[in-house]
Amino acid sequence: DVKVTQSSRYLVKRTGEKVFLECVQDMDHENMFWYRQDPGLGLRLIYFSYDVKMKEKGDIPEGYSVSREKKERFSLILESASTNQTSMYLCASNSRGGGYNEQFFGPGTRLTVL
Amino acid sequence: AQSVTQLGSHVSVSEGALVLLRCNYSSSVPPYLFWYVQYPNQGLQLLLKYTTGATLVKGINGFEAEFKKSETSFHLTKPSAHMSDAAEYFCAVRTYTDKLIFGTGTRLQVFP
Lengths: 114, 112
Known about the structure:
The complex is a heterodimer of chains A (114) and B (112). Chain A is mainly β. Chain A contains no helices and eleven strands. In chain A, a hairpin with a 2-residue loop joins β7 and β8. The termini of chain A are far apart. Chain B has 112 residues and is an all-beta fold. Chain B is globular and about 40 Å long.
């Protein structure tokens, strides 16, 4: 059974803290994605990685950075958390294929920044 | 450029009634289209997808969608709603890479 796991389901942090969200996939996928999900806005892409150490900004990268040192792991970093980063964060992965291949999603991390 | 519009942020149906969730897209490349479902407190899972070939696509849980190029639509239907269908549904279109553009979602409520 294919799997994308995220390190935490719920996280509460304080403004200004550095926050790490971890995502691991066991499908040997080249591509990994971090999305943010907010009511009425759907899913918005934060960052995309198409290979180890390779990354591409998505639609809303401001305030975020990412790291991909190993193929199976993709980390999202909030350098200095702010209240407007309170949201649901979803990680996904798929194999390279010109948009043909479905993305597999993790269960999500609900982050609250106080 | 690619975009997706989902008409209706909330849809309510009675159990046993037809489910129709609307999705219109815009794409500058041949469209690959996806419907995902999100149950409460879970991630998204694929319901069905259209890439090439047959324009009527069947998915899991009795859902299907029809690709209509002339109408730039990919509406999701199910003949008879079940209580377990209550969830949020997202339509998505591929970009020229492996990225997807998602719609804003439609929350389906099913009443007994």
